[in-house]
């Protein structure tokens, strides 16, 4: 039986994060700097999805903002400036 030939639709879905009943569920699998292909699926209602997405994006922004500073410090430590007198 193909997926498109199913006639039964459950009356509601259950959010796997909060347990709330919903007409539909959401999940991000691929996004900029995010790959959940190898993770077990976790389906969320709109509220849980939005809260988790905002937290993930905030964490990504924080990591991006820190990366240039940490990278620059790492570069300075690995390659100290040359002494102009030598």
Tally the helices: 1
Strand order of the largest sheet: 1-2
- The number of distinct structural domains comes to 1
Rounded mean pLDDT is 81
Distance between the termini: 78 Å
Q: Helical residue percent?
A: 25-40%
Order of helices and strands: EEEEH
Low-confidence stretches: none
The share of residues in extended strands comes to: 5-15%
* Secondary structure tally: strands: 4
Q: Which structural class matches the secondary elements?
A: mainly alpha
User: What's the Cα radius of gyration?
Assistant: 23 Å
What is the approximate shape?
elongated
Indicate the topology.
Elements: E1 13-14, E2 21-22, E3 30-31, E4 34-35, H1 46-78
Antiparallel strand pairs: 1-2, 3-4
Question: What would you note in describing this structure?
Answer:
- This protein is mainly alpha-helical and 86 residues long.
- It has one domain (10-78).
- 38% of the residues lie in helices and 9% in strands.
- It contains one helix and four strands; from the N terminus they run ββββα.
- A two-stranded antiparallel sheet has the order 1-2. A two-stranded antiparallel sheet has the order 3-4.
- The longest helix has 33 residues, at 46-78.
- It is elongated.
